[in-house]
Fold:
Amino acid sequence: MFNREKIYEINFLNFGIVKQSKKFDYYDLIQPGVSILFGENKNYIIYYNNSNTIESSQIEEISNTEDYLIVLTKFFVKQYNFKDLTLVEGLLKCIIEEDEDGLYDYCKEQGGAVFFKNPNSLIELENNIFVVKQKVECDFYVHKLNLFFNDDSLRLEELNSGYFDLYNEQVVYWKK
Structure:
């Protein structure tokens, strides 16, 4: 377990919940989530505690043939007591694949539409959930419990969304 594995992309995924109709910055509302490291043969998921400090609580290695969307959906549904499993899985698929198809069937049945935004913009939504994704692509590799890149390394448990300066950011949400 945790042998050398080439990693080509890291995604940091965080859900946010809008409970009031006010203008918020997306970052004010996001909750601790996961990092997913996409590798050639394996993917790694780092789960973060639901607390005020960003610290990892578990690191899981899964084969890249295993459906990571199911694994992530189960985590977020349990972590935040979400009731709509299909919406959660669809939002995750939309944000990871960066298109609206993850919620195509859901929108046909429930109505509404999928929206992508920059997380630095303000939002005005009522009782909605959204997902923020921060992505970095580079030549990484994992060996044991360490991530190596650009002549540098860090322990996987120390990896969090604030570590890299060169990432792309997006938000996705569904609104009826």
Remarks:
- The mean pLDDT is 84.
- DSSP finds four helices and eleven strands in the chain.
- The longest helix spans residues 68-80.
